[in-house]
Structures are given as C-alpha cells and as structure tokens.
Write a structure and sequence with these properties.
This protein is α+β, with helices and mostly antiparallel strands and 481 residues long. The chain is 39% helix and 22% strand. Strand 1, helix 2 and strand 2 form a beta-alpha-beta unit.
C-alpha cells in the first residue's frame, strides 16, 4: 500500500543523502496520475519543491490542457511552477532524432538548466551571520521523477528484447547522481497502488491519449504483451521485479571485478592510455570484460566482436567510437581520444605507396594541425638536402612502419641532429625560446619506439642520411594557419 508512512520508510532506506527538509526538489510533473501523486506526497511531507512541466506541443489542444492542469494544481497547493514550452517536432527534425528520443533530450536538458538556476538562487539567498554559521551550506537541488514498478517491468523486458546485457536487466535505477542529481521514490510502488492513493485523496489527473497508441514499443509491451503473458504467468510482474533485484546485486559484483581488472591493466605511456595485448588475452573473447572497458570510451555493445578482432590484427589497425580510437600498436592496444585537440595519426606505408603508384610524385597525409607530404628518392645527391626545418630527409632503410604523428609529452626525448647526445624535447624547445603556446603546437613523428623527427624543428640523428644510404624518404610539413 502507498501512503505517507510507506513512502517515508522507503525514502529513508533508498535516499539517506536526500533530507526532505534540507533539499530543494524539482518535481517532474506531466499531469498524469503518477506525477500528481508524487507531488501531493512531497507537499504533504512539507518538502521544499518546485514543479517542472514540459509542454512538448505534440498533442495539440491536449498538450495545452495538460499545461493548464499542472498550473492549476500548483496554484491549488501553492507550489512554485516552471513551464517549458517547446516545438518537439521541429527539434527532432533538426537533430534527426525520433520523437521520443527528442522529447527525452529536451526534458532532461531543461531540468538540468532549471536545477542549476535554482541552485544558484539558493547560493545567493541573503542570510544573517548567525543563520549562515548554523547552516553554512545552501540547500542541494534534486530532481524527482514518478517512475514506478510497472515502468520497471516494462523497461527490463525492453532491455531483454534488445539484448542490452546484464546491466540492462537491472532496469531503471532508483538513484542517480552524475549529470543530474535524480531520485525515483515511487519505483517500488505499482501503478495500482498509485491509483489507489489518488482515489483515497480524491486527486484529479489527466490522461495522455498517446499512452493508448500501441505503435510505441513501451505501450505495446504495457497494453498487449504483459496482459497476454499474465494469463500464463499471473505473477509475471512480481517475478520480473524480483529477478531484476537479484541481477542488480550480481551486476554490482561483476562490475567491481571488471573495473578492478582494467584498472590494473591500463597504463599511460607517453601520455597515451595503453593495454598490453597479453594482459587483455587473459579474458580473450569475454564480452562482459570487453564491454566493461569499451563503454567508457563511447563504443556500443554491438562493437564488441569488432573490438576483439583488433587484438590479432596488423599493427596500425583501429576501430573508432564517436569519441575514441582503439589502435593495435605492436604488442599493445592504444586508446586515443579523437575529441581532444591533440594530434594522433597512424601513417601506413601502403597508404603512401598507393598514392605514389597512382602516378603522384608525392603522397599527402592531412592531419588535425597540418599536412605531411612524403616522397621516396633513390640515387640521390646529398646536395639536394635543404636546411629548411619544415623538410626532413631520412634514411628509408632505418624506418619501421607504420609511423605515428602525435603531440609530444613531457617524458619524450630524442637525439637532435648534430648534438651528439639525447635531449628532452621540452628542454630542446625551451632552448629555441618558444612560448608555451608555441610549444604545444609542436608534433613528433616516430618510427617504432624512436622519435625520428621533431616536426618542423629537427630530425633525429639516428635517422640521418649517410653517404652509404641508398634510399631517401623526404617529408615536408605545412602547418595549418
């Protein structure tokens, strides 16, 4: 049964960090029975609340009806209300999203903005010195949504059908505190219990006509699939909730083991995150371990098998997510961000050769910060060597492919041509009287573990041409303006 006592009992166990009298709550209220009951309970508990309603303008007059209903409810109970009216259809079209995805994105983005403004208002409230001493911290702001146990059952089934793995079967979390400080205090109460509460307290609410459209996946599961399954399995909802709870406990154990495994295996080399292939092969082919790693770097579960393939691929092979690349580099996998403004480009010999074989005199490789041009020259005369630092003339026989162009890091060193000893790149650039900003724009081109060119500044002595050299690799560099 749902009442103030059972609600408070669950609250104290699930949300001990959210004190009812010391938190400012943003209540996501649509006008439906779930959110109206949540708002009524929080008001009855004398919590400090602001009602937040989004008018998505998807159901014409019905959307405006819902907005007015929420405004009237807030006025009746003297709860502050904020309304966000938005053209969801246009937003979805502009950003190429489905309507439900667009609505969710709009909703939570606005909630975040509203919560931030309320938090700033709490910070700026004038206080007497005595009151400030007694309550030095402003009230935290938390978002409450009215998800309930029936939503949980539907979500677990949706995730099961989509093959989202063990974590998906844990369903909707009752608490989040990452991008948003969010709690779902009705998650253990059923729709029937919520409607019973509304009836006992004579609460009016509105019905969303779109909930009856079975074209939406969730509505199909709610209106058709679960009722059919309940005929064969009368306790299906209770069983799914119980299973989800056990899966959540198992997921915590698995997640902890997977996290600890990768924590020991990921190291930083020259500022690049790397994993030994030998270490990764300890869990070779294990999708749970691979997913535990790659989800942190923007990959999807559908990419697990493709990620596995690069463990045995040739050097330089890679797979990308929207934010990162996994690159096979000898006996390790390198994890490189493609969203940070740092240079990282793998240059394969076949790429160069293919361009030259197509009749081009030089091969061109464009990078984030500039353009490299490559040219192989045989039977050369040393007199052709230019002193322009934007050209590198290297002994092709000493080069190990593929090459790697990257931003230098503090631990990098090389053997500057003519110096006769190794030197830290940071010190070499300082000797050139470069500003910190100028130094950050410098890249290195490496062959294997050796830096062969501090691009645009000096080649490494180990790759210099000698009278006995038979083949020359000429590289030019043109920095972007």
């Amino acid at each position: 049964m749902l009442n103030l006592e059972t609600f408070k009992e669950y609250w104290d166990v699930a949300f001990p960090d959210l004190r009812l009298r010391r938190t400012h709550f943003v209540l996501a209220v649509s006008g439906g029975v779930d959110s109206i009951v949540l708002a009524h309970i929080m008001h009855s508990l004398k919590a400090n609340c602001t009602i937040a309603h989004v008018n998505f303008q998807l159901r014409a007059a019905e959307s405006d009806r819902d907005e007015q209903f929420v405004r009237d409810f807030a006025s009746q109970y003297q709860i502050p209300v904020q309304v966000h009216k938005v053209d969801t259809q246009n937003y979805a079209l502009t950003y190429k999203l489905g309507i439900q995805e667009a609505a969710r994105e709009i909703r939570y983005a606005w909630f975040g903005t509203l919560m931030q403004s309320l938090a700033e208002a709490e910070n700026n409230k004038p206080q007497s010195p005595l009151l400030h001493a007694l309550t030095p911290k402003p009230k935290p702001v938390a978002l409450l949504t009215a998800h309930h146990a029936d939503d949980q059952v539907e979500t677990v089934l949706m995730h099961l059908f989509r093959g989202t793995g063990i974590h998906g079967l844990t369903g909707i979390p009752d608490r989040r505190n990452d991008v948003l400080n969010l709690a779902r205090p009705l998650i253990q109460f059923s729709k029937t219990q919520i409607k019973d509460y509304a009836q006992r307290h004579q609460l009016n609410y509105v019905e969303d006509s779109s909930n009856e459209k079975d074209t939406y996946t969730r509505n199909y599961i709610r209106n058709i699939l679960i009722p059919q399954l309940t005929i064969q399995y009368p306790s299906i909802s209770e069983n799914i909730l119980a299973t989800s709870k056990r899966v959540k406990e198992a997921d915590h154990i698995v997640s902890s083991a997977v996290s600890n495994f990768w924590k020991k295996g990921i190291v930083s080399k020259k500022g690049i995150l790397t994993i030994s292939i030998h270490y990764w092969n300890k869990v070779k082919g294990n999708g749970t371990y691979t997913w535990g790693l790659i989800k942190q770097f923007g990959f999807k579960a559908q990419q697990i098998e493709e990620v596995h393939k690069i463990l045995s691929a040739s050097k330089g092979a890679m797979i990308a997510s929207p934010t990162h690349q996994f690159i096979q580099w000898g006996d390790e996998i390198q994890i490189v961000s493609i969203t940070q403004k740092q240079e990282y480009a793998v240059i394969d010999e076949s790429t160069i050769a293919n361009q030259i074989n197509k009749g081009r005199q030089m091969a061109t490789v464009s990078t984030q910060t500039g353009t490299l041009q490559f040219e192989f020259i045989e039977n050369f005369d040393l007199s052709i060597i230019s002193k322009d630092p934007n050209y590198a003339y290297l002994d092709a026989s000493k080069i190990q492919w593929p090459l790697l162009l990257r931003t230098w890091v503090a631990s990098d060193y090389f053997y500057p041509l003519g110096l006769g000893k190794k030197k830290k790149i940071n010190q070499f650039l300082s000797d050139l009287k470069l500003s910190p900003t100028q130094k950050k724009r410098i890249n290195i081109l490496s062959s294997g573990e050796k830096i062969m060119w501090l691009v645009g500044k000096r080649i490494d002595d180990r790759f210099k041409l000698k009278p006995t050299s038979k083949k020359l690799l000429k590289i030019s560099w043109q920095e972007n303006p």
